[in-house]
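Form 7-S
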Amino acid sequence: MTQQQIQSAKNHHRRDTLLWIVLPMAALVLLIVAAVAIAIWVPRDLEGAQLRIISDLMLMVIILCPMLLCLLPLAILMVVSVFGLNRVHDMLVQPLRKVSGYSLTAADRTSSITDRINRQTINTSARLGFIYRFLGTFEDPTDKEEDGQHEQ
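Output:
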């Protein structure tokens, strides 16, 4: 990198730091100071309201902001894990397509084999149909056949 590019990068970094870190912090401090000043200059007959306003403000500053900062690493961890899962997904696309192709091939083969077996079974049953008529003679007659024989 040339010296001019390095200087430009430093200026860009300083500007971003000022814009995204220093100015929001300064705005927060000014907001807190303004809220406390307004709460203090409220007439004395609203002392309960003053106390509630200041306590709510201090709750935000002393409890909620540090809690947000403590949860920031967890949020960063979640973002990094999403990025990692996206990379893993991209790496697994090709192998999963191969597996999908293999499973489609296996499904097609299974379907064709079962169709051939079904056709062969039906053909064999049709050829041996005359034997089924003789095999029926050895079975017990049903109730209707018995009733029909008694009536004759």
